[in-house]
């Protein structure tokens, strides 16, 4: 079995927007290095100043070097048929595979990561970065942050790992069913092994334990594994992978419970890599206010922080349509509701006796507004969704009260759960939002047999 130990220097941290400035390959036969290859590469772009300072590779040094497409044939032939080995292999492999593909070569080979292997074969080291690890092991490197120096050091480290692998971690990692090498470099396999194949929510933590991503799954184990599949070389994914050090989870019984828990946790934890669900999905609300004469007015306006609208809606158009229906049904004034904004005669049902012209008392008009609000509330549903639990002797339960999510939790398999006041004692209240509410209402419409009508006692 032949191994290709690779190290590269680049212009940046992700392959699809950066170039390779230097590459070194040590071909290892399982006992020693039998062939070496190294070359500077013209990346086609300027090398950032801080990378020049780190590597010592300047724009002048690569100006006369060949571009990657001109050395791709040699590199592909060296790597083809070998096990691709590198310290943090996914970084080097993503660059080499991407740039070989740009030159017309499809690199397909198994990978080994000397970071992951070192953690298993040489546990207890204070650091597993290449420089510090080699220093602890007495491996010299006269050209740190240069491809040849780092490749030679990695080759010496790999020889040590091969000779120290009494528990066969290297053969196990190369087995076809093993996904060891696709995992983030800082994530221990034990976190993957603990994941259940059940619905729930999972959390990715950084090196300080802070949650950087929350996700939901029908099958936690399968969904987490999908994050690490493929060879996406984009900046976002590469940064994401580097930040994952631990995984935790909570089982939820059903996908709907997982979806709701995910939404709650994203709002609570505000993880760095969750882009969705961080904005209000429903940005408008139906509000009431009292004017100087004491008339209560209804108006559709943008949602305001810490405000309590009578009703929420997804757009100004939807809100205006709702308000128009209330005007017609409860004989409200279109001018007082800001639906009619011109100075023309009121277009309401009782225009000649309308409040806007002073012909209807404050008490009479305000009662109409209260009736409209009450009618709106009466139309909002109160029900529970009862479904599978985490265990055989329990059910999951989600409560919608007057059109808002009250909370959710787990109840006994034998509990009747049709008494509103009693049910609340078993559920955990959660902050509701329109995304969550609509999710539950839509689910009830799709699966009516899960819906439980409630009795208010």
Question: Which architecture name of the largest domain does CATH use?
Answer: 2-Layer Sandwich
Mean pLDDT: 88
Structural class: alpha+beta
Helix content: 25-40%
Counting structural domains, the number is: 4
- Please state the overall shape, judged from the principal axes of the Cα atoms: elongated
Outline the low-pLDDT stretches. Answer: none
Major pleated sheet:
5 strands, mixed
Number of helices: 16
- Strand order, main sheet: write it out: 3-2-1-4-5
Percent of residues in beta strands? Answer: 15-25%
What is the CATH class of the largest domain? Alpha Beta
How widely separated are the two ends? 75 Å
Work out the number of β strands: 16
Q: Which fold name fills CATH's third level, the topology of the largest domain? A: Nucleotidyltransferase, domain 5
CATH superfamily name of the largest domain? Ribonuclease H-like superfamily/Ribonuclease H
How would you explain this protein's 3D organization?
- The protein is α+β, with helices and mostly antiparallel strands and 457 residues long.
- It has four domains: 3-180, Nucleotidyltransferase, domain 5; 189-269, GIY-YIG endonuclease (3-Layer(aba) Sandwich); 284-375, no CATH class; 383-453, no CATH class.
- The chain is 36% helix and 21% strand.
- The protein has 16 helices and 16 strands.
- A hairpin with a 5-residue loop joins strand 9 and strand 10.
- Residues 197-275 form the GIY-YIG domain.
- It is an enzyme of class 2 (transferase).
- Keywords: Nucleotidyltransferase, Transferase.
- It holds the Pfam family GIY-YIG.
- This is DNA polymerase-3 subunit epsilon.
